[in-house]
Amino acid sequence: MSEAAYGIHMSPAAQQETEPADAGPIAFEFTGSGSEYFRIWIVNLLLTVATFGVYSAWAKVRRLEYFYRNTRVAGAIFDYHGDPKAILKGRVLAFALFLAYKLAFDISGLVAAAIGLLIVVILPWLLSRSFQFRLANSSYRGVRFHFAGTVLEAYRSLILLPAILVVTGLFIWSLATSYANHPGLGVILLVTLLPMAAIFSVVPMAHYLLKRYQHDHAYLGQSPFFFQARPGQFFKIYGKAVVIFLLGFFVAGTLIYATRSFGDAFAGKTFGWLIQLFFSTLSGYLLYLSIRPYLESRLQNLIWNKTELADHRFISTARARTLMWLHASNLVLVICSAGLYQPFATIRILRYRLACLALQLDGTLDDMQAHHAGDGVGAAGDEVGAFFDIDISL
Predict the structure, then answer these.
(1) pTM score, two decimals?
(2) What strand order describes the sheet that includes 357-360?
């Protein structure tokens, strides 16, 4: 399929200028603005509320189209082709699963556990379908992406974390019910420390397997992606994140202790609870801010620096300090604007993360050929994954 069919017109001279074989890295660029996205965001929000959520599928397509079409590299843009009706069907399925899980608690805890277990069991399938749907409806220079991973490979790669969480949850539940009346110190420590140990030991490996499955089975036309990272690199980042978390926890605890007398002075006042809530929320956010920018920057750099597209490689240089400043200032501006700054905050983060990403070409991008396989991939996996807050993006 030609580039003109997707509204992309590049002269031969422009292509030679943007794709020289011996040039340095070509940076990604986001050309959108907060004011433009604000108009899309506010209309999406109002129509979604007015239609009791039905318009959310069309809102998602408008949002992704805006993000894709304003992302540029090597003189060309990306595009998104998702069908809102297909997305709506996926969201209906997502809502049905969520409603069944909620209603199960009114029947019995055992039924709720069974439905929760069912969701965990089908999670690899949902993720596989999500990758297929998202890539099949994405393109660059008129060439479609596609995903070749199978469901069997998804279960081999992605079942580790859900399985560990289920086993850990059942073990904790059995301990809690067995010693509900007189739990000993050992039981309390097990119930508290075992989940943390299980998560800290499994999450890095699960994240590595997820990204390996996602990137190693992705294609742009006929050009394959390759993922070269190793599990130890993920463990190193997450290990440092745990240390940062503990240091942040110490700082937050110190702040709470230092301001305890100040909070006690307002405890008996009319709005004393509000002041105490403010300080506890501030401490919690400082703890959150101490770890998110580090993970966000280091994982982006690791994942993309170890990803190749055919003979081309990606370069990522995101910095934790810059992301910390962006997140902190965004929070202040969102609060001061009663939430109206949120679309501007989204654009600020997206623009920075893309500005830190570049593509080092080995030759040109003209050797990519379109992949003409069918794009009729269902949206159920993508929407159920998003509904249950599963992040499979950059």
Answers:
(1) 0.80
(2) 26-27, 357-360, 312-316, 307-309, 223-227, 218-220, 143-147, 138-140, 76-80, 71-73, 29-30
Q: Of 262, 292, 268, which Cα lies nearest the Cα of 280?
A: 262
Q: Give the Cα separation of 329 and 323 in Å (integer).
A: 10
Asked if residue 61 lies in contact with residue 80, where contact means CB atoms within 8 angstroms, the answer is: yes
The answer to whether 286 touches 239, Cβ cutoff 8 Å, is no
Asked whether residue 3 carries a pLDDT value surpassing 50, the answer given is no
Beta bridge partners of 246: none
Residue 12 near residue 55 (C-beta atoms within 8 A): no
The CA distance from 207 to 195, in Å, is 17
Provide the pairing of β-strand 218-220 with 76-80.
unpaired
pLDDT band at 349 (very low <50, low <70, confident <90, very high): very high
Decide if pLDDT at 8 tops 50.
no
End-to-end alpha carbon distance in the chain:
27
Which residues, at least 6 apart from 24, have a Cβ–Cβ distance to it below 8 Å? 360
